[in-house]
Amino acid sequence: MPVFYSKIDVSSYLTSLDWLIFGGACCLCLLLILYGHRTKKFLPTIINKQTSLLEYLLMGRQLTLPLFVSTLVATWYGNIFGVTQIAFEQGIYNLVTQGVFWYVAYIIFALYLVKKIRSYNATSLPELVKNIYGNKSGKLTAILVFFKTLPITYAMSIGLLLQCFLPLTLFQATTVGVSFIVLYAVSGGLRTIVYSDVALFIIMCFGVCLVLLFSIHTFGGLGFLQENLPSSYFKPCGTKTLPTTMVWFLIACTTTFISPSFYQRCMAAVSNRVATQGILISTLIWFVFDICTTFGAMYAKAVIPEAESLYAYLTYGIQLLPVGFRGLLLASIAAAIIAALDSFLFIASNILMYDFPIINFKNIKLQHTVSILITALITILISMFFEGRIETAWLICKSYFSACLLLPILFGYFAPIFANDKLFVSNCIISCLSITIWRVYVMQYHPSIDGFYIGCFTTCIVFTCYYLANSLVAKIRTSVMPGSKAA
To answer: By CB distance 3.0 to 4.6 Å, which of 113, 339, 455, 464 could disulfide with 200?
Structure first.
């Protein structure tokens, strides 16, 4: 049985063949990006600013099923360091909280929300909210979605990956990684992102599957894990409490139901059928991917239990795989991070140039370039605040802004009585304040109750009060109308 070390110099394990394979993966990405530019060049629809924006933001609504699946799968799995860290520390808990909960949310989205979303013919999530509630709601949603969409955890992930090879601080490595992404993200619109995601999708799937297959071949199956891991690693809640575990189900629902990435891909699809089928197919692929990353990280814990949890999966995989395959693993991890980082940088910057246009140039490319540079700078600065704590950043960013938006948006879809501009804005402000007060003054005494619950509870109170007040006003008006019984 081979000897594994808990801490290694990753670059010393990589041979010329590994770097050649890694370089080949990069070249495949570049070729598909260039192909995306070529298809864009011959589009006849780019005749004015409005049609140019549609092409730039939504690929002219021409996203077919294979491209839809590739870009959605690739975009949605950028936190590979985060999920493998959770699996290394908690085991099956990761598959439940980062897998099963999300599959339920994906299926609900595909079956019940796709048609409603596409019926508004909007270009973005904030524009959709504007169509339902009003202009002020759209602007406020743009601000909240901007901060929710900032790829903070993905920026930290690319920084952590670069630190494996370069003698840089996390801030320096994050800056270098994000800057590299910006260089090609500004070169084109969604079409460029989608075609690069095809290559990234293929690469990332091969790498993680290899780690699990070689693990089973080298150490054996489930019996090996059961012998070398604590029993908590096979419990759905791990060592966490039920409320802490369940908050991930709510985060899965909120993140998916108001995910700008999901909305953008669905709005860009050629039809409702493509969007629905694409999400369902993607869910099956995510299931396989989650099995591979979860059990791969669990093997890492069983073999090198003293390894640093953030790097454990990479440290284990590099030592496990033979020459050549190591380069593919490195490429797959980089692909998962880059696919999410470039997509969310693109979406967040679109808010600055389209939904909340603080920058306005006639030249769309220049406008987007400035927007993405500002977005990248804000992302880097905020990511430094969390200092590599990916799960903490994930929980705070997702729960804080999702709690303010989820229920109001769903109410807007299914209960038109609540489609009131002032109600939406008031609720968002009150929810933000309630979450802030809870986190600052109360959560230290009740750590198992996340601020997300408080935000959702506040929203329910606000909307219930609005409904009761409306009902009361309606009864009063009815009672004083001429010809009524009261009259």
So the answer is: 339
